[in-house]
Design brief:
The complex is a heterotrimer. Helices cover 74% and strands 1% of the residues of chain A. By secondary structure, chain A is mainly alpha-helical. In chain A, β1 (37-38) and β2 (46-47) form a beta hairpin. In chain A, α1 packs across α14 (259-290), α6 (112-122) runs parallel beside α12 and α11 runs antiparallel to α14. In chain A, 46% of the residues are buried. Chain C has 20 helices and ten strands. In chain C, strands 4-3-5-10-6 form a five-stranded mixed sheet. Chain C has a three-stranded antiparallel sheet with strand order 8-7-9. In chain C, α12 (294-302) packs across α13 (316-322). The longest helix of chain C has 18 residues, at 2-19. Classes of the chains: A mainly alpha, B mainly alpha, C alpha+beta. Chains A and B meet through α1, α4, α5, α6 and α7 of A and α1, α3, α4, α5 and α12 of B.
Chain lengths: 291, 288, 466
């Protein structure tokens, strides 16, 4: 390849780089700046130094939001486990299996907003879930599902899991189908039963997919917003039980107009996602090396 | 004697296989019920007349008094077809332009040597970690004060015209194309653009499909940024419009249900028709 | 090319001619006048006077509704209303048409915004393209919100006294900021409780037994829960809790010179305790209690799941449209009064944005929609009440009530004249409200002592004051 001093590469790069520079790079710089200011969008920002960060450290709701976002990460291993399980179940040539696969995928395609709204309707005090439980005699009185602080986050997490299983199942299914048959045959010859077969052949074989799902899913869990918004409206759940980092950021920036304070929150979120991505990749790479 | 024994062993094996199959189907059906039930319930609720209880003990699923009045009510109250139109415009624009721009950018990063190539690449990779919500505050200010496209569709198109993930995937794809093909093109005197368009793009078509599909799903379901930008009913995309519907109909479960059905059914139909491509595209992303 | 230019010219001239419409005045009636005509008959010394009776159409006088002077020529203004479409499309459009007869040459662009009204407005202000004329909710405190941010046009020196005198004084004087007026009072509501007799009658109580004061509600809710299992559909105005405290609890939320908050007083604690008790007794729907959407409560009632709901008679129309079966079982009672003795404040107002390019046109539109005739016409199609005493002289209001929506008509004028905004201006209202909201949730749902919760909130709120 000739090392010409040509401008061609740059021409190719310009459209994409321009977009990313304006909509990603500039905002990063801007947010760093805003985090040191008092800014309410309608009037110019006012420098206040570290005040936002100090306020953040003392803010009980911020710590609550942070803990909720970290708790939300439980969704990731749950999703991986259930999706692999489901992928194994549907990875066979049963008649009608394609219909089932498509069916399981539907929640992922419908969008978290539509699904969240449907769930909220079902969970209403006078909704179908209470109706069913009452008629089965399991409940004596309807439970106000979305008014109990302890239930808000678990319900949101269930919703996220329900949405993601079909999607990730497809990913793992493709991965399973890439594992050479010979490995399974070898396992059979070695006398493995079903569980051992999957533990020693399927799971290691799915390593790249597991990495992919782990990274994507954990980043999404840390940044969850849609589910909380549709289930709890602008309130974020009673006693802030559903408030996650991104929800708190949204409320501070776009409801209360504290754009400076919200930018400080955004910086914290950036540090967290960075740490997580590095951690994820390290852990899973180490696993590959061990193989 | 031996024959009967073998046959009974054989029968036992077949019997066990049949039981296994039945169990599998039971499991599949259970999962299907859990997956589909909310949609089924929403569908029936949307058809219930005013005399059909939404709430009853025991709950009543099938309406006795079916009616399309709920759909009419929602249709009259909200410009649902506009929501659709806007979503289609936004999604198609982004998919086409994004794929184009990222494919253009991935080529030099994969196949050319020039100053700053690695710096640019690692810089791009680093930006992947940045949460979208972080960029929303300054982007909001930009949209309102600089570009002045607040409450207009370009506001939800421009920020998405390039994405780091897509650049990365396409770069991988380009890298896997043997250099000989490129050199052959160069010797024929073709310009880089020609090479890119006529030689490389056809080869990496599967990855292009993957990128297009990932972008499509992401854009169609995008809510956060559009909800900040689009406020007039006529300008809303589907997801934003859905939330407006929920606000407008609050506890009117039948109306909300009708709205949800109207917005979800077409995408389900669309997906069912293109099932194979979808799955192939999504799973292709992982292998990269 | 030439044909195109020609066609363009024709189109332009048609457009222009369409614009130059003659002033349509109130059509005047022909009148018989006696005219004396002096005719000189030449050739004779006499001068003959001829008396004729002629029909003369007097030149039409100025439109009686055009009371604002100096309206800008070719003004184009935008008007935002809050949740009036599609039900009142015809009324708004015909009123705008009538406005354009009175003030020809003014173009009005009308938009209606609903659940996202506040967000849309805030963003429009930030973008610099806020509407000129804005329908703001007095009851939600929006006028003082936007006025304190300097976003509304002060009206004191620009509205003629003759226009001001058309309104009830207490309504004109609402939500003053530093003694300055920022709103034209528009349609008013009279707070009533809609009662679903299907549920209410099961308790054995009569309509007359319905509590007259807010303090009586918890007991009623308890009875309803015990007998029918239904929860009460009561909503805290989570966007303006201090106002609710003031009206219901008679609480003084900030001291006289605005230097310290005082919403941890015994009255405030008693008010909060009332709700804490209801939550403890399990007689209210908790999601409705703290929802930020007013319609949640209304729709819960409309779908027949609540015994009563506090609202205005104008929303009976919604109930009727969405659940005709319930309409026959409705009863209306005056809303319970809080400790303040004042039932409520005004409902809706119209304001003008501070930096409008067409102040006189905007003032004219605001005044037009709130003048006696416009509001009378509005009252005839829905149970809202005018802010102008003159409207009540119309026989419409003295007619005996027929439908349930009309039950407030006989005492409407009296009730409206007493509406008052007794909430003082609160600095940093959004942030203080957020603090109060968090505190109230702690007391309601987390077993924090109400006094403790409110005192902590006062401390945080005081930290915001200079």
């Amino acid at each position: 390849m000739t090392k010409k001093l040509s401008l061609t590469p740059y021409f190719f790069l310009i459209p994409a780089l321009l977009v990313i520079a304006v909509f990603v790079l500039y905002p990063i710089v801007a947010v760093v700046y805003y985090s040191f200011t008092d800014y309410n969008i309608s009037t110019p920002p006012e420098w206040v130094g570290l005040k936002n960060y100090q306020q953040l450290m003392k803010d009980p709701i911020f710590w609550q939001a942070l803990s909720h976002s970290l708790i939300y990460l439980i969704v990731t291993p749950t999703l991986i486990f259930l999706s692999i399980l489901l992928a194994i179940v549907v990875n066979r040539k049963l008649p009608g299996i394609h219909a089932f696969r498509a069916l399981f995928f539907i929640p992922a395609i419908s969008g978290s907003i539509a699904v969240g709204i449907a769930w909220r309707l079902m969970l209403d005090t006078n909704g179908i879930i209470n109706g069913t439980l009452l008629s089965l005699g399991i409940l004596k009185e309807p439970i106000q599902w979305l008014a109990e602080p302890a239930y808000t986050l678990p319900i949101a997490m269930m919703l996220t899991t329900w949405l993601g299983v079909g999607y990730y199942m497809m990913v793992f299914l493709a991965g399973l189908q890439n594992i050479p048959e010979e490995l399974y045959d070898a396992a059979l010859i070695d006398g493995c039963n079903v569980w051992q077969k999957h533990r020693h052949v399927s799971i290691p074989g799915l390593r790249p997919q597991i990495t992919f799902v782990a990274v994507i899913s954990s980043l999404a869990a840390l940044q969850v917003f849609n589910e909380i918004f549709t289930l709890t409206g602008g309130l974020g759940g009673i006693l802030n039980s559903g408030v996650t980092i991104v929800f708190y950021l949204w409320r501070q920036a776009f409801r209360l107009n504290h754009a400076g304070f919200a930018s400080a929150i955004a910086m914290v979120l950036l540090v967290i996602t960075l740490a997580f991505s590095i951690m994820n990749i390290r852990i899973l790479e180490r696993g590959t090396e061990a193989d | 004697m031996q024959q009967t024994q073998t046959r009974s062993v054989y029968n036992a094996a077949v019997f066990r296989q049949v039981i296994e199959k039945i169990l599998l189907y039971v499991v599949l059906c259970l999962v299907a019920v859990v997956t589909i039930f909310p949609f089924v319930w929403v569908f029936f609720t949307s058809l219930k007349g005013p005399n059909d209880p939404i709430v009853s003990v025991p709950p009543q699923l099938i309406p006795q008094d079916p009616t399309l009045a709920n759909y009419v009510r929602v249709w009259n109250q909200l410009p649902v077809w506009r929501f659709y139109l806007n979503s289609v415009i936004v999604t198609l624009s982004v998919v086409v332009l994004n794929t184009l721009f990222t494919a253009l950018a991935a080529y030099p990063l994969a196949k050319m040597k020039f100053r700053g190539r690695d710096t640019i690449f690692y810089l791009l990779l680093a930006t992947y970690i940045v949460p979208p919500v972080l960029t929303s505050i300054p982007s909001f200010v930009l949209a309102v004060n600089v570009f002045r496209y607040y409450d207009k569709l370009p506001a939800v198109i421009f920020p998405y015209l390039a994405g780091v993930l897509n650049i990365f995937l396409l770069r991988q794809a380009f890298k896997s194309v043997p250099d000989d093909l490129l050199d052959a093109g160069r010797m024929d005197g073709a310009s880089e653009l020609r090479i890119w368009w006529n030689i490389l793009m056809p080869i990496i078509r599967p990855t292009l499909a993957t990128v297009a599909i990932i972008t499509f799903v992401e854009q169609w379901n995008n809510f956060f940024w559009p909800s900040l930008m689009l406020h007039t009913r006529e300008n809303m995309t589907l997801q934003v419009g859905l939330v407006a519907l929920q606000g407008a109909f609050a506890n009117d479960a039948r109306g909300i249900a009708a709205g949800v059905v109207m917005t979800v059914i077409p995408i389900i139909i669309f997906f069912s028709a293109l099932q194979q491509q979808f799955v192939r595209g999504l799973t292709g992303a992982v292998k990269g | 090319m030439r044909t195109r230019l020609f066609a363009l010219l024709i189109m332009v001239s048609i457009l222009l001619s369409g614009c130059a419409q003659p002033t349509t005045q109130v059509p005047a009636e022909p009148v018989k006048e006696t005219v004396v005509v002096t005719v000189e008959v030449p050739g004779e010394v006499q001068v003959t006077t001829v008396v004729e009776e002629v029909l003369v159409t007097p030149t039409p006088g100025p439109n009686p509704e055009a009371v604002i002077e100096g309206v800008e020529q070719n003004a184009e203004i935008t008007f935002w209303t809050f949740w009036l479409s599609p039900t009142f499309d015809d009324y708004i459009k015909s009123t705008i048409a009538r406005f354009q007869e009175a003030y020809p040459g003014v173009t009005v662009n009308w938009e209606d915004h609903q659940a996202t009204f506040q967000d849309d407005l805030r963003n429009a202000f930030a973008a610099g393209n806020a509407p000129d004329v804005i329908n703001l909710s007095i009851s939600e405190g929006w006028v003082s919100d936007y006025a304190t941010q300097g976003l509304l046009l002060p009206l004191d020196d620009v509205v003629p006294q003759s226009a001001i005198d058309m309104y009830f004084p207490n309504l004109w004087d609402q939500q003053l900021v530093d003694g300055t007026h920022y709103q034209f009072p528009w349609y008013q509501g009279i707070q009533v409780n809609l009662v679903n007799r299907q549920i209410y009658d099961q308790t054995g109580l009569t309509i007359e037994d319905f509590p007259k004061t807010v303090d009586g509600l918890p007991a009623l809710c308890k009875t309803i829960k015990e007998v029918t299992g239904t929860l009460c559909d009561i909503r805290l105005t989570v966007n303006d809790l201090l106002a609710q405290m003031t009206y219901e609890g008679g609480v003084q939320v900030i001291n006289a010179d605005g230097t310290a908050f005082t919403f941890d007083s015994p009255e405030a604690v008693a008010w909060l305790q009332l709700y804490v008790n209801m939550v403890k007794d399990g007689t209210v729907d908790k999601t409705v209690l703290v929802t930020d959407q007013d319609r949640v409560g209304l729709d819960l009632f409309t779908t027949g799941q609540a015994a009563f709901y506090n609202t205005g008679p104008n929303l009976i129309r919604e109930v009727r449209a969405n659940n005709p079966g319930l309409y026959g079982y409705l009863a209306v009672v005056p809303a319970p009064v809080g400790k303040s003795g004042v039932v409520g404040k005004g409902l809706m107002a119209i304001s003008v944005k501070a930096d409008t390019a067409f102040p006189n046109a905007s003032i004219a539109l605001s005044q037009f929609f709130t003048n006696p005739r416009s509001m009378l016409e509005f009252s005839k199609i829905v149970a809202i009440y005018p802010s102008t005493p003159a409207s009540y002289d119309d026989p419409f209001f003295s007619a005996a009530p027929v439908a349930i929506e009309d039950s407030a008509k006989p005492y409407a004028k009296d009730a409206v004249s007493k509406l008052a905004d007794i909430v003082p201006t609160v600095p940093h209202k959004a942030d203080v409200n957020e603090i109060v909201l968090q505190a109230i949730q702690q007391a309601l749902f987390n077993n924090v002592d109400p006094q403790q919760a409110l005192s902590d909130a006062v401390a945080s709120a005081n930290a915001l004051l200079p």
